[in-house]
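Handout, section B. The chain below has 361 residues.
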Amino acid sequence: MSASCRLIVTVRDVDDERPVFQMQHYTFRVAENQPARTVVGEVAAVDRDTFPFNRIVYSLDPVSDQLFHIDPDTGRLVIRRPLDREQKASHRAVVVARPPSTDVKIAEAPFATSGSGTGVCDVDIVVDDVNDSRPKFQFPVAGDDTIFVWATDAGIGHVIGQVRASDRDAGVNARLVYRLSTQSVATLLPPLTPTTTDAFRIDADSGQLTTIVDLRGAADGESPTEFILEVIVSDLGTPSLSNSAPLRVVVGTEVVGLRRTNVQEDGAAEDWEGGTVAELLSLSGEELALIGAFILSAVVVSVCVVVICAARCGRKRDKRSVGRQQEVVAIGDASIDSPLMMTSLTTDSVTTSDRQVKSQV
């Protein structure tokens, strides 16, 4: 006889599985200047245990937690404050998934990046650029805003200089284009007579300035012509940002120097006055020729004097050397026949004889 029955065995779950992220590396993008609580992305981990052992709590490493916040239940990542791409273009965060703690709150639990009961993943947050930086001129700037052009070189098509600017943004937001304002003022010094003229062209991409009219006759004698231009630089971002700066172009036939007119005690320029921003210190061509000839003559004379002095010193040294040799020879010859020498020899001989006699006694 036999009997049978169905036996049902239920395996009770224990918390022996650790959370595993669906991806070990996440990459999210967020635009700069977004307000706090803006969502960056969401991470997800799975625990193969059954309820309640399959519950997961998410947390961030302490450094990332200063910039970002993660929802402990959903894994949703948000920013704590606006991000600035110009300061830092990307960030990396470490996210930890682990079973909930029954004794300690997640905010107070010590951070752990490894262990049998935790899962870890890396998150890269790329900060996308927003056109929030205005172009900044490198030339012209205060204290360096003037280009001098020889009148003989001011024909049509002559490149007189180049303006430069930079933009801290990236990509298309950092691409710059240059242009001139609609009017350029030509001021004859003296007298101060403003007129309007279109004398220059600027390359939109490179910022090179070129003359489009013949300015070789602009300067009359000792009176240069000063053009006051307004240079404008704009980026190609949306919306476009721009900046402007004044530029002086001085066309003349003389050497021109620029001197600040009002300087603070620490050496920094306090102000640049309109017509006297550049005081023109000029020399005529004849004066320059005379100065050059004088300098050249002075150099030639100095070289000749040095050569003559060196030759004389060499001759004196040779004469002294020969004279000393002759004196030595003369002294040697004279010492042999000198009565003094003979007397000295006789005295030494007598002294030696006396000593020999005393030693015998």
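Note. The CA atoms of residues 60 and 95 lie 5 Å apart. Compare this with the example in section A.
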